[in-house]
């Protein structure tokens, strides 16, 4: 195959793109890779021979290939430069997040697609980790005040549209300070983690259990149409708190008190959650 101008052969073009640090590949209109650099082979985890011999459907999951080809077709048809964030599974089965820049090139009356890949997996993972830290309690990994407040806002919006019932519980552990004073803060932390695990197993996936800080928790119950459902959840929480905890080689007993807002309309900000104790007490 000959190219016009100062680049007479594929081997010369191969030598040029091999010096590029980012993965680069070239496809024809049939979606077959016809050229790729060493960085692309390393990124995909396949040899050059494999990448050139097999189709995308042989190398990648079908759902990924469909995304690739839809983006390719738009570039071939419009000639516009494309930049998309995509998921790519390499030969080892690792899913990578990439930004792929694609452009159509015409050589000897034939259209080709040139693509350059930027691997942003580490950046996206760090971004997701930072987001998680911002909205979750570091000790229990439960949603924190900020995330609870956001979900209360969403619940209020749904309620205004659908009339969906919501209930907010404020859970305060009894005698927790005694455990801290007797066994130390590390044991207190273990107790908090154990109770968090217990309470999280009680509610549904659509509900939210949040740690507000210290020995204070909140539970946002969504679409509990029957008040008896709320009473049942409260009873299970009290039972979970009353069961013994193993800390520092000793068995300790605590309890819990629950404040209830039967309608979330009364609560517009998580900063007033503590006032729920004056709404109704369940203990």
UniProtKB/TrEMBL annotation:
PROSITE patterns: GGDEF (PS50887), PAS (PS50112). Residues 164-283 form the GGDEF domain. CDD domains: GGDEF, PAS. Pfam families: GGDEF, PAS_4. Residues 9-79 form the PAS domain. Gene3D superfamilies: 3.30.70.270, PAS domain. SMART domains: GGDEF, PAS. This is Sensor domain-containing diguanylate cyclase. It comes from Hyphomonas adhaerens. The lineage of its organism: Bacteria, Pseudomonadati, Pseudomonadota, Alphaproteobacteria, Hyphomonadales.
